[in-house]
Amino acid sequence: MTSDSIKNNNRNKNNSKNTTKWFSNITLLRESQIMKIHYITAVGALFVVAIHIMMRLIMPFNMSLEFENVILNYKNVFYALLLESILILIAIHGFNGLRVILLEIRQTQIWERAVNILVIVAMIGIIAYGTRTIIIANGFSLG
Amino acid sequence: MTSAKSAKRIDDINNKNDRTNREGLRGWLNPILYGWERVSYWFQRLTGIFLLVYFIGHVYETSSLVSGPDAWAAMLEMTQTIGGHIFLILVIGASTLHTVNGIRLIFTQSGQGLGKPGRPDYPYDPTSVNNKQRSGLWIAFILAAVAMLYGANVLFSGE
């Protein structure tokens, strides 16, 4: 075995130690990549949530929450897309944050696998449920 | 330290049954002896969990829109109480604190504001625990308080 192949083997071993195996033998993303996604979704969410809050403050707060006003917001395609992006960004950021906390508490293979599957299912569930609201409200008839 | 005492200490360290360094959640929640950095760590996680719970509740709450005006009004009534307002003020404070402290952590993780590494000399003050880090934390607390006051003003005045 040449020194280069030994180096490559060692590099591969190190790589496999630093990766997250979400399902039995499938390696999806490294922890460093997941943390980059965590930070990117945080910064993205900061901007879209700021717009979402400002939309509530462009008129008196109580009035902005009236059914007709809220439905009008949802009927605006750009605002509906903004809500969808908030939903996706916060679901990814929030459930990955929960995953990080749960993996800090305990580190066994079964626990890590269970936590990974749980957060992915919860993330998909909340995105699907929120998207359903956006789609139905977007096509909701006022009269 | 006498030799008998140091021998006992070494025995304690070697005896695995006496090692109580696996504190689990208690260790996670204990802010004593670790300074403001541990308080920051603690707040970042607690506010994160709180905001995730709020996010799930908010998605559920807004889903009442699809059931018509009456369902929306009934759901909204729950938040139009003093308790509901206080809860929303806490959400505003938690989100501001989590955001500002999170920005500090992004910079920290990319190596900004940690100081230059140096030889560990007495009294062993780590360069990473410095005024830049602490001021970031205090700014997060101050902005959270300001946001909560503004939120309280909007919610209780209804404007």
SS elements, strand count of chain A: 2
Average predicted confidence as pLDDT of chain B: 83
Helix content of chain A: over 70%
Oligomeric state of the chains?
Answer: heterodimer
Order of helical and strand elements of chain B: HHHHHH
- Here the CATH topology of chain A equals 3 helical TM bundles of succinate and fumarate reductases
Q: Provide the domain count of chain A.
A: 1
> Which class of chain A in CATH terms?
Mainly Alpha
Major β-sheet annotation of chain A: 2 strands, antiparallel
Second CATH tier, the architecture of chain A: Up-down Bundle
Care to count the β-strands of chain B? 0
Description of the molecule:
The complex is a heterodimer of chains A (143) and B (159). Chain A is mainly alpha-helical and 143 residues long. Chain A is 80% helix and 7% strand. In chain A, a hairpin with a 2-residue loop joins strand 1 and strand 2 (26-30). In chain A, helix 2 (31-57) crosses helix 5 and helix 5 packs antiparallel against helix 6 (109-138). The longest helix of chain B has 28 residues, at 35-62. The N and C termini of chain B lie far apart (67 Å).
Compose a concise summary of this entry.
Chain A is mainly alpha-helical and 143 residues long. Chain A has helices at 3-17, 31-57, 61-64, 67-75, 77-105, 109-138; strands at residues 19-23, 26-30.
Highlighted features:
heterodimer, A: 143 residues, mainly alpha, 3 helical TM bundles of succinate and fumarate reductases, two-stranded antiparallel sheet, B: 159 residues
